[in-house]
Amino acid sequence: MSNRRILVTGASRGLGRAMTDAFVALGHTVVGCSRDETAVAELRKRYGEPHRFSVVDVADEQQVAAWAKEVLDAGGPPDLLLNNAAVINANAPLWEVTPAEFSRVIDINIKGVFHVLHHFTPAMIARGEGVIVNFSSGWGRSVSPEVATYCATKWAIEGLTQALALELPAGMAAVPLNPGVIHTGMLSSCWGEDAAAYPGPQDWARRAVPFLLQIQARDNGRSLTVPA
User: Fold this and answer.
1) Domain that holds residue 187
2) CA 132/CA 193 separation, integer angstroms
3) Out of 31, 77, 165, 212, which could bridge 124 as a Cys pair, Cβ 3.0 to 4.6 Å?
């Protein structure tokens, strides 16, 4: 499809912003959200209609419901839905992670994905086509110390997405995606200066965006990884 309608959560920074810039440059329409009001205002100024950017906390189901209604009423369901928004816990052994921080990571990384799926998937099913990509991680298929909370959420995304794939009608796809190791603020919070050894979001997007655009119904349920 030469002009696809692409929904990106966490569109204002890191991988989300890099994907947004790349999709727009290729002529696609991006519908994005972020919790950052200033960043959303900048996106709106940079990319006008038909692109749409909204201030939404995916952990808040009512905010997602209102956003979904606006998006669906304005242009129908997305062709490609990218559940990218996520946070990571500060490095710490699991027993030192506070209940508040544990809940914050769960609420955004798991509940946030569910909220978006809950409010957008029915319209995609009614149309009978569309691709859903839920961002996982290398830490959704392996583990490391001091990021147990984050690992738990990404392992959950793997299982949730593969189960969803079994529920979707023919012609649709849901896949968990490991984006690879990228130098983002999230990686820096874990690895410090060592994170700079890896490619940044813009370099990553040059590989990832064409890969994402090639995902089809035949990939339904596959655990995919962006090529290095």
Assistant:
1) 5-225
2) 34
3) 77
Are 92 and 102 in contact by the 8 Å Cβ rule? The answer is: no
| Phi and psi at residue 9, to the nearest 5° | -90, 150
Count of beta carbons in the 10 Å neighbourhood of residue 127: 13
**In CATH, what number is assigned to the domain containing residue 24?**
3.40.50.720
- How many Å apart are CA 157 and CA 155, to the nearest integer? 5
Distances from the Cα of 130 to the Cα of 78, 81, 126, 203, angstroms: 7, 8, 10, 26
pLDDT tens per residue, range 14-72: 999 999 999 999 999 999 999 999 999 999 999 999 999 999 999 999 999 999 999 99
Q: How many domains does the chain have?
A: 1
Radius of gyration of the chain (CA): 17
Residue type, 228: A
Q: What is the value of pTM for the model shown?
A: 0.94
Question: Which residues on neighbouring strands pair with residue 172, listed in sequence order?
Answer: 130
| Catalytic positions | 150
First to last CA, the chain: 25
pLDDT tens per residue, range 59-86? 999 999 999 999 999 999 999 999 999 9
